[in-house]
Fold this sequence. Notes:
With 413 residues, this protein is of the alpha/beta class. It is built from 15 helices and 5 strands.
Amino acid sequence: MNKIFNLVKKELDKIFKNPRAILSTFILPGLLIFIIYTVMGNVMATQQDDLSKQNYKIAVVNPSEKFADAFTSYNAMLEQAGKKLNFEFVNVDSALKDMSGIINFDDKTSTSEEKALRNKIISSIEKEEYNAWICFNSDFDEKINAQNVNDKAVVGVFGKVSLNKSQFATTNINSVIETMQPKLILRAPIDFSTEKDISKTLLASFIPMMLMIFVFAGGMSVGADTIAGEKERGTISTLLMTPIKRSHIIYGKIISLAVITILSAIGPFVAVILSIPQLMKSSGVSLSIGAGLSVGMVFNILGLVLMTTLLATSVFLVMSTVAKSVKEASMFASPIYILVVVLAVLATNVKVTGIGLYFVPFMNIALALNGAITETLTVGATMATIFSTLGYCIILIVIAVKLFNSERILYSR
């Protein structure tokens, strides 16, 4: 038993007597999760606050005094909590005169007039002329007053939840209606988001972060071993004795590391994407990933995946060259991993004005991915991302070559 306990003690001492090992094994993983979810929570809260401060225009057909009173009460309640809805309700004349007729918005069976009306509403929402439409039956208030649960008041709420402002508007409108004796109301919420709209919104929300996670998770262990492993195993001298320039060794290392990183990241990355439709089925949402992707978009994503891999492997190579051991290289890379994931989360939610953020390493790729998926990526942003990323890669490779030419760095203990 003593021999067993001595062996256990020896193995535990490797960790607990090494502050760096304690940091990388026990502290950094928990810190990573804490920082990522804290940033995500703060970003989402900031996004909601930003949405609540914006102005909204709501088209109203057959205005209802009951709804107006309910909205006033609802907004007063929000004001007590330090919030307020800046909604402007605009009375419009429309063919949506009576929801009891159940207007048909199905493309396959609707009439030409119904299609024209549908397109008019969608166009006004997409152009932000209005963020949502509400149509009350002409007798809406009378039926509320009648208190007859068998003859309900009818209201239609029209929006496009794939657009942030429209989603915010329709959500709050529906919340107001829920305060108005819901047993007496037949509410017809209609979302004009297409399957393609939903797919693009969903993909843009998680692909940038997932890509960074899988690239770093797939390449970090191999990257840490690239040079530091040679030092630790004592094979660095043998490697340096080969008849090849040291700079060429670095180039060979980074190419092989990039290939391994891509291959190790692509499996889980594709698996997550393909599993999303199955996951969404549990929420009653029918989704096709292919609906949100075009051929050009796929090529853009593949190009950005390659750039992410090149930049990440350049970072791994520098960390591995500086480190004295594989564990130390992993420890050096871990804070960068945390920072990169945080930047990817921010990129998914940040409101971009200009191209300044497209020069921030890793964040620029996440922003470009988001833009490529939502088809909002401009030529200027693309060029800024490509040239800045390639520039960072060149700088890191030059640094790695210089470090690799230093005997002091290579043989430090």
